[in-house]
Amino acid sequence: MSVMPAALAEVVSDFADMQGQDKLQLLLEFANELPPIPADLEEAAMEPVPECQSPLFLHVDATDRARVRLYFSAPPEAPTTRGFAAILSAGLDELSADEILAVPDDFYADLGLAKLISPLRLRGMSAMLTRIKRRLSTS
Length: 139
Description:
Belongs to the SufE family. It holds the Pfam family SufE. InterPro entries: Fe-S_metab-assoc_dom (IPR003808). The chain is built from 5 helices and 3 strands. By secondary structure, the protein is mainly α. The protein has a single domain (about 5-35, about 45-139), classed as Sufe protein. Chain: A (Alpha-Beta Complex). A 3-stranded antiparallel sheet has the order 1-2-3, with helices on one face. Strand 2 (about 55-60) and strand 3 form a beta hairpin. Helix 1 packs across helix 3 and helix 2 (about 20-30) crosses helix 3 (about 80-90). The protein starts with 5 loop residues before the first helix and ends with a helix. About 30% of the residues are buried.
């Protein structure tokens, strides 16, 4: 059963409340809030997400399946990619593996960005979630 966790539902709701260019502005605000990766985690040790148009790396720490940690690295000159990563970070970080695995694969459609962002970029966000879920279902 697909269930959107409260934190992610809140982000989706924030986007739903915006119109047109305001959605892009909100995405840029998220991009600026992407947490830095911890000092002991090197980008080279992170998993690349080649489906993203800009370089994006992610790390899923499922040592504690009740509190999964998600880390993303994307360059500042890739605000859309950083924004997507920040949405996933804000909506999923520190949730349980089961909660993350239950997130609808197409939740990002509810953000209402399809008219503003290319399908290729939206696929990048989908790919991030798919890789997170794959990592959790194999760990």
